[in-house]
Write a structure and sequence with these properties.
about 375 residues; alpha+beta; Pdz3 Domain; 3 domains; six-stranded mixed β-sheet; four-stranded antiparallel β-sheet; 22 strands; about 30% helix
Length: about 375
């Protein structure tokens, strides 16, 4: 009799052991799927355009140097003095989020975290009813006007007369010129309490009004359709102790020296002050700022008034990044400067081209410590 033998059931194969060991349960599959879906939604959200604008510190340009292999400023008709020592840098801000340049949530998040970026609602930076093309055209017109004003103010500061034909475009709403002037009137003379002043240059008009009290009645002589006309106008206040006519002007200048400014892909009016300083430096023996790197910003009028600009905090950061030791800031922007000056940069407030020129000369002389700041 053959004894019964107990045979154990066959065990799981090696492959079965591996499957059992690494088996993924339903719960784990659900968690992984949910995670992937959440990640996909997060990526999609970061790529969705949002109604914000992101501004960042842009490039700076040495007005005494070259851009795209050509001089940023060139002059014909007189002797020039190229400067290979110091630098006068205009500063810029880049903007995205307006028409044609939408920003994503990811860009906004990065802007909130970056020191050299500012995030604002899009309508605070871009007019909602202005197209990309219209914005570009406006920026180009502002740049052209800035270059023209810089040239006139710089040549005037150097003692040149810059004849001008000053044509009235329209009166400022609510001013004393309303009802007196007409579109196309060409200014020829201005009679104030100090007497009659022929208006041959923009500076003539500016000087006469600066010496006139606001609220005075002046007689403006214009050429209207080929005949002279005397217009009585009550002046307004220019905020600096002088008067304004209350008209918008179109000025056509006859330059005694041919000045060309060439810079691509930069728009707006804020480079005017640095353009003017660059022209003065080029037409003046010796570097006006010495071997130093001076950056700055500010609009400029034909009579050399420095006006406010946007994005000054970002421009100060751009200046420091590109090696500037000093920064010229419009006095009207000082409230945005105080408390935000980056370490290593001395900010000097200026209200006129004359003050800006005096500042860079003081920098060259080593007496910059006494220059006025926005803090006091």
């Amino acid at each position: 009799m053959i004894p019964e033998t107990s045979v154990p059931p066959p065990g799981p194969s090696r492959w079965q052991q591996i499957r059992q060991r690494y088996r993924i349960g339903t719960r784990a599959i659900t968690m992984v799927g949910s995670g992937l879906a959440a990640f996909g939604l997060l990526v999609a959200m970061l790529l969705v355009p949002v109604p914000y604008a992101v501004e960042a510190s842009g490039p700076t340009f040495n007005t005494l140097g070259e851009v795209a292999e050509h001089p940023l400023i060139s002059v014909d008709g007189t002797e020039t003095y190229p400067n290979e020592e110091g630098e006068l840098r205009l500063t810029t801000v880049t903007s995205a989020g307006g028409p044609g340049f939408p920003v994503t949530a990811g860009s906004v998040l990065r802007g909130w975290l970056a020191e050299d970026m500012v995030v604002q609602p899009a309508e605070a930076v871009f007019a909602p009813d202005v197209t990309e093309e219209e914005r570009s055209q406006a920026a180009a017109r502002q740049m052209a006007s800035s270059q023209q004003n810089a040239t006139v103010s710089a040549l005037t500061a150097l003692g040149h007369d810059v004849p001008a034909v000053l044509t009235i475009v329209e009166p400022v709403s609510g001013s004393g010129a309303v009802g007196a002037v007409q579109r196309g009137d060409v200014i020829t003379d201005l009679r104030t309490a100090d007497g009659e002043q022929p208006i041959d240059t923009y500076q003539d008009l500016s000087d006469a009004l600066a010496a006139t009290a606001a609220g005075s009645t002046v007689t403006l002589t214009v050429d209207r359709d080929g005949a002279p006309a005397d217009l009585e106008i009550t002046t307004g206040d220019d905020g600096q102790g002088g008067a304004v006519l209350g008209v918008y002007l179109n000025a056509e200048f006859d330059y005694p020296i041919d000045v060309q400014i060439e810079i691509d892909n930069v728009g707006g009016p804020s480079a005017g002050t640095m353009f003017a300083l660059g022209i003065i430096d080029l037409l003046t023996p010796g570097p006006i700022a010495g071997p130093h790197v001076v950056a700055g910003t500010g609009t400029i009028t034909p009579d050399g008034q420095v006006g406010p600009i946007g994005g000054i905090r970002l421009k100060m950061l751009a200046a420091l990044r590109d090696g500037a030791e000093y920064f010229l800031a419009p006095v009207s922007n000082c409230d945005q400067v105080v408390g935000h000056v980056p370490e290593g940069l001395q900010v000097i407030r200026v209200a006129t081209l004359a003050e800006a020129e005096q500042a860079v000369q003081a920098i060259a002389d080593g007496s910059a410590a006494d220059l006025p700041s926005c803090a006091g």
